[in-house]
Structure formats: C-alpha cells, structure tokens
Design a protein that fits this description.
This protein is an alpha+beta fold and 172 residues long. 16% of the residues lie in helices and 40% in strands. The chain contains three helices and eleven strands. The strands form three sheets. It has a five-stranded antiparallel beta sheet, with no helix packed on it. The protein has a four-stranded antiparallel beta sheet with strand order 2-5-1-6, with helices on one face. Strands 3-4 form a two-stranded antiparallel ribbon. Strand 9 and strand 10 form a beta hairpin.
Length: 172
C-alpha cells in the first residue's frame, strides 16, 4: 500500500472552508477514509486594530489553497479534482506534487509516528483538555491524525470522542 502524502489543491478564493466541508462529505459518502485521510485549511492568529482596540482573529495562511493528506491514485485524484470550488492541484501539468518534509514543518504538520503504549481495547485516562479525568476504553487509534477515539457516557449513552495522543495516558 502506498504512503499518504500532503498535496495542495487550488480553490476559488474564499471557498476554502466550503471545499473542505464538501470534500469531507464526499470522503464519508464514498468510504474513502483510508485513502483521503485529512483536509486542512491552514490558519494563523493575527492581531488586528479596529476602532483603537486590539482583536485576535484567525486568518487563512494560504488564501485559495487547501491541504489534503491522501494516497494518490485515480479515485482520490478524481474526487478532489471534481469537488466544487477546486480548480486543480499544485504541480506541473496535471501531475500533483506532494509537499516535502521541509515544506510541511512550518505548517505544524508532523509526519513522524509517535509511539504509544496502549492499543485498542485498553483502558486510558484523559489527562488534559475538556475531557480531563475521564476514563474510557480505546475504541479506535488514528496514527495519521495522532488521535485516539474512546467511548464516553454522555446523556446516558456511549458517545465516541476523539482525543489527541498527548492528552491521554494508559491506566495501569
């Protein structure tokens, strides 16, 4: 199986979030979760001065572009290329070029795998974030997103919650 790489899709300016939403919906509908792993619109915090007051706002780092982590094949190329608002991939001609390690680093995208000491079925405790001190069994591990999914009891029923590797510890 080929390794997933980050590609850059060019979009109409202002359509980045719409493209991200449409692409995620298509991935879910066509069950391509194993081939198209993540869609990102890189954002940065910017301090703006408005009416003499400082205000921190989120701005797009690359207006007109969406990052897609996927295994490049005819199906995935077709799905991304034919998403409404996408004008094409970045690369010479029709062949998309993946981002290099050096290009991904400033974007906060890490490709190195984190080793974890738990597996599916193990009991873990959340040590940070909104679900701090919650205990749950590992339901799913996503190494690409570096998240673990646990079932948490919410309103009397089990609800899957995705939590970062850095926020959980194995319960002994």
């Amino acid at each position: 199986m080929a390794e997933a790489k980050w590609y850059v899709a060019h979009t109409y300016s202002g359509y980045e979030n719409k493209v991200k939403a449409d692409l995620e919906k298509t991935i879910e509908n066509r069950h391509l979760e194993d081939e198209i792993l993540e869609v990102r619109v890189p954002m940065q915090e910017v301090v703006e001065m408005k009416n003499g007051a400082k205000k921190t706002v989120q701005k797009k780092l690359f207006p007109g572009y969406v990052l897609v982590n996927m295994i490049m094949n005819d199906d995935t190329w077709y799905v991304v290329r034919n998403t409404r608002g996408v004008t094409g991939f970045v690369g010479p001609g029709s062949k998309p070029v993946p981002l290099s390690e050096a290009e991904m680093k400033p974007l906060g995208i890490k490709s190195d795998n984190v080793s974890i000491d738990f597996a599916e079925g193990d009991t873990i405790v959340v040590v940070a974030g909104a679900w701090k001190n919650t205990v749950g069994a590992v339901y799913k591990i996503d190494y690409n997103k570096q998240t673990v999914t646990i079932n948490v009891e919410l309103f009397g029923r089990d609800t899957p919650v995705e939590i970062s590797f850095s926020e959980v510890r194995k319960l002994d």
